[in-house]
Amino acid sequence: MSVIEKDRFSRPELIEHITGVWEDVLGLDRVESDQDFFELGGHSLGAVRAASRIGDEAGCDLPLRAIFEHRTVDALAAAMLKIGAAG
Asked: Cα separation of 25 and 27, whole Å?
């Protein structure tokens, strides 16, 4: 995972961004930040679409495996910010 652009998103903003992408990709009206992408009906093609959109809009290269390794919005946001903080 490449470094997320520092100061581009606060944690709440990143969570809101990821949640919006997941709601769109999954076709749901509401996704809670602790819900599992795959338990909500997500599949590999949806994960590809989500990773691409989240990465593009966050200004980083988000690999597909990030969605599989961090299956909730909270976990994915934390991972993205941790990498960004270390970069």
From this structure: 6
Cα 47 from Cα 65, distance rounded (Å)? 9
Model confidence over 7-58: pLDDT tens digits? 677 889 999 999 999 999 999 999 999 999 999 999 999 999 999 999 888 8
Tokens representing 57 are 């809009």
Q: ∠ at Cα 49 (44, 12), nearest 5°?
A: 110
Residue 4's nearest CA partner among 73, 65, 76, 71 is 76
Nearest to 15, CA basis, from 58, 45, 46, 44: 58
- Joined together, the tokens standing for residue 35 give 């819900």
Whole-structure pTM value: 0.86
Evaluated on CA atoms 21, 34, 1, 87, the torsion sign reads positive
